[in-house]
Amino acid sequence: MNIFNKRIEVYSIVRDLIKNIWVIFMAALIGFMGVYIATKSVYTPEYTATSTIIVNAKSSSTGSYSLFSVSVEMTEVISRVLVEPTVKEEAIKITGDKSFDGKLTADVYKGTNFIHLSVTSDSPQKAYDLLVAVLEAYPNVSDSVFENVVISIIGTPKVPHSPSNTVSTVNKLRVVFVCVGLVAVLVVLLSVLRDTVKDEEDFKDKIDAKLLGVIPHEKKSLSFKERLQKKNKALLIHNNSFISLKFVENYHKIAAKFEHINRNNGAKVFAITSVAENEGKSTTASNIAISLADRGHKVILVDVDCKKPALYKIFDKEFSENSELGYLMNGKVKSQEYEFKTYKRTSLYLALNTSPYKELGEWIEKGRFSNVVDAMKEQVDYVVLDTAPLSADACVTDIAKLADETIFVVRTDTAYTANINDAIAIINEVGGRVGGCVLNDVHNTFSPFAMAGTDETGYYYGKGYGRYSKYGKYGKYGKYGKYSKYEQYSKYASPYLDDDSDEDEE
Predict the structure, then answer these.
(1) Which of 87, 109, 210, 218 is deepest in the core (most CB within 10 A)?
(2) Where do the structural domains in the chain lie, given as residue ranges?
(3) Phi/psi of residue 338, each to 5°?
């Protein structure tokens, strides 16, 4: 659906409403507080004393119906006379006040000869006294004018006990609901106007790159206990029996396109990146690598996100010093001693880090990284590099130049389209080649649940990069003695990736 060339995606709107529920709650609170403050500081209580009088025409030779009609007509006239200044002047003579400090009204019950007389003032006693004075003063004015009319009081005035202008609960709630409605409309408007990729059609309209595949939103099947404990299950196509067939098949389709790219231009090294954080690039890189291995290829999955490595959490692996990629890059482990981990009984080999490293820029500058990647490329069919987001690490452009193809993961309604297109242009300008994009987390059917913005490891990805913006802060990662406890994991894949290499059992 398009309104003024803006796509409306229901899930995106509902997710924004849920994410901003605290803003809506604050709007309700502000509305309630506003009413409270107004009633305490601006509001002036008023009290109204009332009485009901009946007007009857004096008996004559006419029939009863004609007599009632005359009474009704006279009631209209008398109601106007009751509020005249003359009556008020007579009333203040009785009370002894200097002025008539109140509002006098006389309302006729339609079609009857009854008049509802009321006096409103800022004091309950004053309102009562003025009404009584009006009832006493009126005969002095009317007797000489309306000789054929009898006025009787049928509702005795009483001192009012509570203000007549109290703000009702209904009106208070109306103010609160108006505030909530205005904020909700603003949230919806901002959601619709936000220039992000909402779905597949939106991608085709806005992004200057090929769409390699669409990954549907997949809900992680967690028990109530696991949710309370904040546990998380990685969405790996081999690792969860509750994953939908469509989710698995779409990754296999993307892997088939990688094979097509390889056949066309011989590309073997694919860098998987994203513009922003929390777009699911690590899960995407992992599942593409698994799918390629399922198709009979030897694949190495390399964690090049040296600021916030996540793959070891996805694969739930523990590593010794000989399987830590950072040690190989730093020269602490010789190439012939480095041991890859394998994923289950597949031809997927894992070169991962369990801690951040500040030296990635140095590795690239001195050629260590390219040498390692070239060595890997000679031994396997595909090398998949999981990089940091482009907005979080400038080294991504250097990695893109070393890779044969760079693939962007675009999560729906996350990064702005202008930033995505700028990132694609940057990779092309530095000499890299953008092979296309994978559109992630596409909601084909609306669901009001699972709207929390955690990354594939269950952590809020946006909180992990800021402190690593300068390499000088990596000093505390220089010692890795803590990994000695992983010595029990002594059986790893051969560094030469032979077919008869040992495999980890899971």
Answers:
(1) 87
(2) 2-43+167-192, 47-153, 197-216+245-442+482-486
(3) -70, 140
